[in-house]
């Protein structure tokens, strides 16, 4: 008897569970992306979306053995990082003019 | 041999997807940008890193392993930097801290026009957040 | 704050001054040559075989070099490996902490922005410190003051601000300062 006869199905099961969890995670992150309320919140959500996408790509490679996707994961990570850097720059320079969606606290008089 | 690496990969996938899920819950539940960033950077990075590590564990060819490890290292290297830039930008643009923030020693330290950041002076008393000096 | 480093510097200078930079390079060259020789004798120039040859040559060179006194070249990879392990360990610990805070119902934590005084003025040191802070449980570095004297850190869950600052400095700043000397 091969003690590892169910091994492949364990890996497949793990991938199935992970796909469901990441799917729900993508939905939750989308909710934050839509809700905001500030631009920074949306950028954080966007950044997490790409990190999630990298995880999905990892799962895809494991499930299908399609190695080419790994390069896409790397490129995606790079693009996401650059995007976050430039968004941060935008928020820093123009943030006060953009709508934060918050009205509970006014910091503009602060020094 | 092959079976063992598949079990390890499976366990990594389960733990990784759990952390990714936690990151998503955190980004939805946590009260302000800064705390949300904690969830997204730490749990998100670890989760996706573990998923990519699973690829490296169950791969047969060396170049696949190297590429997967490179992706993980890239993730670990960039997220703290991105979080720092975003946190700084949010604070400068005035995204408020949540009401459970009990101390804000950054308050009033940025020059409003030049965005130059002053250091902590020895006689600085800690500020109460939300109260202006 | 930084009144005693001169003495530490003097000690480490005495230790490191006899190691010329070229000596390390020579060991590396020898290591590469031996790896090539290994591939030649085994008759396979694949990446895997070259790596095996490099590791074997590394181990074979280690012993004689250790007897001659200077094994900086051989200790460096282990130091880098140790730093990487610390990084990974901290990331796991912090993700677990964050997971626990996220999954606890209700918001039963108090966050804060803390000003941590910096003793390392070196750019690389500050960068390392800031990034390590970002990966430790519940802390995220926001910015460094222009005079490189203060690091502003957002802490997700603070009980006692001053104790937290002392903790951060003790666990990371001292090791970093020693590693960079």
Description:
The complex is a heterotrimer of chains A (111), B (133) and C (181). Chain A is an all-alpha fold. Chain A has a domain at 36-95. Chain A is built from 3 helices and no strands. In chain A, helix 1 packs antiparallel against helix 2 (39-64) and helix 2 runs antiparallel to helix 3 (69-94). Chain B is mostly helical and 133 residues long. Chain B has a domain at 2-93. Chain B has 3 helices and 1 strand. Chain B has helices spanning 2-29, 33-58, 62-93; one strand spanning 101-104. Chain C starts with a helix and ends with a helix. In chain C, helix 2 crosses helix 3 (47-68) and helix 5 packs across helix 6. In chain C, strand 2 and strand 3 (150-155) form a beta hairpin. Chain C is elongated, with a radius of gyration of 22 Å. Chain C has a 3-stranded antiparallel sheet, covered by helices on one side. Chain C folds into 2 domains: 20-69; 79-180, no CATH class. Chains in contact: A-B, B-C. The interface between A and B is large, with 65 and 62 residues. Strand 1 of chain B pairs parallel with strand 1 (111-117) of chain C. Chain A: The chain crosses the membrane at residues 13-31, 43-62, 68-88. Chain A: Belongs to the CPA3 antiporters (TC 2.A.63) subunit F family. Chain A: It is a multi-pass membrane protein. Chain A: This is Cation:proton antiporter. Chain A: Its main location: membrane. Chain C: Residues 163-181 have a biased composition (Basic and acidic residues).
Short description, anyone?
Chain B is mainly alpha-helical. Helices cover 65% and strands 3% of the residues of chain B.
Structural class of chain B: mainly alpha
Order of helices and strands of chain B: HHHE
Helix content of chain B: 55-70%
Helix content of chain A: over 70%
Stretches with pLDDT under 50, minimum 5 residues of chain B = 122-133
- How far is it from the N-terminal to the C-terminal residue of chain B, by CA? 66 Å
* Average pLDDT reading of chain B: 78
The biggest sheet of chain B amounts to: none
Based on CA atoms alone, the radius of gyration of chain A comes out at: 20 Å
Overall spatial form of chain A: elongated
How many DSSP E strands of chain A?
A: 0
Strand fraction of chain A equals under 5%
Shape of chain B: elongated
State the oligomer: heterotrimer
H and E order of chain A: HHH
Could you give the count of β-strands of chain B?
A: 1
